[in-house]
Design a protein that fits this description.
mainly beta
Length: 197
């Protein structure tokens, strides 16, 4: 017993005991309940500054939250799903002349996907220096097709993923007789900033 690593013994003590007969495939994950909660909200604003100029604005927000559930001890929990989307748009339209129309629009789309593992005090295991963030360590090599305990131990990582997408468009429409001429430009940028601790 003295040759056993004390950290490994403490991790093993957390693992659930077999609840099925035999030596392989002998752990049946207890039934568990999960849910997904979605929230959608949007606001739109239109205003006529004059007979020839109008502006509009839009803001939309979407959140999808699903707590992590796998029927295992809470120490082995991974990160919840908690995705946020924000969309903002501004528009400007002007009738310069009865045959000349100007449109300008700008927008900004942002997504954040937090993958924050539940906090865990690694000193309970006697483990030091695993990771700056205090989460249950990611322990591999305990899964396999031959049963026993099946499932990952710990969170694979803890971070927040972002996506930022600014957009802009402008167009000028000219109606001349039976012809309609349209010119303009459009810009879309994709950014994936990675914050560092």
């Amino acid at each position: 017993l003295t040759a056993m690593d004390p950290v490994a013994l403490k991790v093993q003590a957390i693992m659930p005991l077999a609840n099925q007969p035999g030596y392989i495939n002998n752990y049946l994950v207890p039934t568990f309940r999960g849910f997904t909660h979605s929230t959608n909200m949007s606001v739109k604003f239109d205003h006529n500054i004059s007979n020839t100029i109008k502006i509009n604005a839009y803001y939309g927000q979407n959140n999808v939250f699903t707590p992590f559930r796998n029927g295992q001890p809470t120490e082995f929990a991974n990160a919840d799903t908690n995705n946020w989307n924000h969309t903002t748009r501004l528009g400007y339209d002007q009738t310069i002349t009865p045959t000349l129309l100007l449109h300008i629009g700008v927008g900004y789309f942002q997504t954040s996907q937090p993958h924050i593992a539940p906090p865990f005090d690694q000193s309970k295991l006697g483990l030091k220096g695993y990771e700056a963030n205090q989460i249950f360590p990611d322990i591999g090599g305990v899964t396999g097709a031959q049963g026993g305990f099946s499932g990952s131990l710990g969170a694979t990582f803890s971070a927040i993923a972002y996506e930022q997408k600014p957009t802009a468009t402008t167009s000028l429409t000219w109606v001349r007789g039976n012809h309609t001429l349209k010119m303009g430009g459009e810009y879309t940028g994709d950014g994936y900033p990675t914050p560092s601790n």
